[in-house]
Amino acid sequence: MPFIDSKITVSVPQEKKDVLKSEFGKLVSVIGKPESFLMVGFEDNYDLYMGGKKLEKGAYVSVSLFGAASRSAYESLTEKICKLFETELGIPGNAVYVTYHGVNDWGWNGRNF
User: Fold this and answer.
1) Which residues touch 93 (CB under 8 Å, ≥6 apart)?
2) What is the model's pLDDT at position 31?
3) Which residues contact 107 (CB under 8 A, 6 or more apart)?
4) What is the Cα–Cα distance from 60 to 100, expressed in whole angstroms?
């Protein structure tokens, strides 16, 4: 069960959110997870600061997943997420920050996995 949560400094129209959601669905295979369990969230027009300066074009992407993946899988996913944000939103890769959070206990439907 991965959850990809994005905080993005620019406005993201619904059609772009749909594209990103679909692409995330493909990308999660890199960490060994299926799209059928993927949850995605977007928060656009978000104020992000790095080194005391406001990012005009930037993104913070948090990837939480039940269990964990290998470091090489995370490296690959980071590269793909950065390329996706550059292609779809014009946000350069050096302004996209990605974190990974392995979760041991994840609840759904009245129980935990």
Assistant:
1) 82, 83, 85, 86
2) 93
3) 113
4) 11
